Amino acid sequence: MKKLELTGIGHYFQGKKGSVPVLDHIDLHVNQGEFVSLIGPSGSGKSTLFHIIGGLIQPKSGDVHLDGVKVTGEKGLIAYMPQQPALFPWRSIESNAALGLEVAGQDRSEALAKAREWLVKVGLGGYERELPHVLSGGMQQRVSFLRALLSPQELMLLDEPFGSLDALTRQDMQAWLLAIWEQNKRSILFVTHSIEEALFLSDRIYVLSNKPACVVEELTVPFPRPRVETVLQDPKFQELRHYVQGLLRRETTTHGSH
Ligand SMILES: Nc1ncnc2c1ncn2[C@@H]1O[C@H](COP(=O)(O)OP(=O)(O)O)[C@@H](O)[C@H]1O
Ligand SMILES: [Mg+2]
Fold first, then answer.
1. DSSP alpha helices (H): ranges in the chain?
2. How high is the pLDDT of residue 167?
3. Residue 29 C-alpha to ligand 2 middle, in angstroms?
4. Which residues form the ABC transporter domain (predicted)?
5. CATH fold label, 1-78+154-258
6. Tell me: the pLDDT tens digits for 121-136?
7. Which residues line ligand 1 (CB under 6 A)?
């Protein structure tokens, strides 16, 4: 189990016309075994924050701690599903899905066997030996999701994992993610555009402002687990959905005013 803590994360990109501030003093945490979502306007800096947590970008200020140890800028400590599937075009689909297991030192044939078992579950049976280019965007996203799911690190970052899936596949994926998470309680930080998805899956939600992003609200989701679809009809669910929608609407109609 892993606890993630971000303190005072600030970042800007150097552009032709000067520096563009993207993250403004972000403080957030994911407790051991907790499922936390980030929701915020497009372009607010969510993927940048994930790159920082994954050690791919060094933040201009602030630190990342895992279980109390400072790991700012260190790679390889988390299971990470990027917003773009980023599959290796020369590796077969099964070998792409098994990558996280292999990198972690699991025997290759065992890793592939596990990947094959899961490819069938996510509706990709028959594609195991093909190359990624034969898959649609949504299918590639499922392979990328499996790669993160099968990676052994106890903290998992998922950047809009179900964004390009149709509604039914999306529901299946959500159900798998919840089932797996409820079995072994990894810590999850999840980016989504969907307020319903965030409310359905999470223990807590951070709502981010426009760029430069800061945390405008942190809410605890009160519904018991295991979560079932009927929670969507709960009046409290609708109330929270409207509340978050209001916060986001305020962000998309004001620009950089904080
Ligand atoms: N490597 C980069 N160089 C310059 N600007 C970038 C870079 N990566 C992201 N940005 C800018 O930072 C802002 C936040 O991007 P991003 O983190 O992808 O937002 P989100 O994931 O919330 O949609 C955007 O305005 C984007 O154009
Ligand atoms: Mg993004």
1. 46-53, 93-97, 99-103, 108-121, 137-150, 167-184, 195-201, 235-253
2. 87
3. 19
4. 4-235
5. Rossmann fold (3.40.50)
6. 888 999 999 999 999 9
7. 13, 22, 40, 42-48, 211
Structure tokens at 116: 């094959």
Q: Which of 22, 211, 251 to mutate to test the pocket of ligand 1 (most atoms within 8 A of CB)?
A: 22
- The CA 62 to ligand 1 mean position distance, Å, reads 18
Distance 173 CA to ligand 1 centre (A): 27
Q: What is the pLDDT of residues 203-256, one digit of tens each?
A: 999 999 999 999 999 999 999 998 888 999 999 999 999 999 999 999 888 655
Q: Which atom of ligand 1 is nearest to the CA of 159?
A: 21
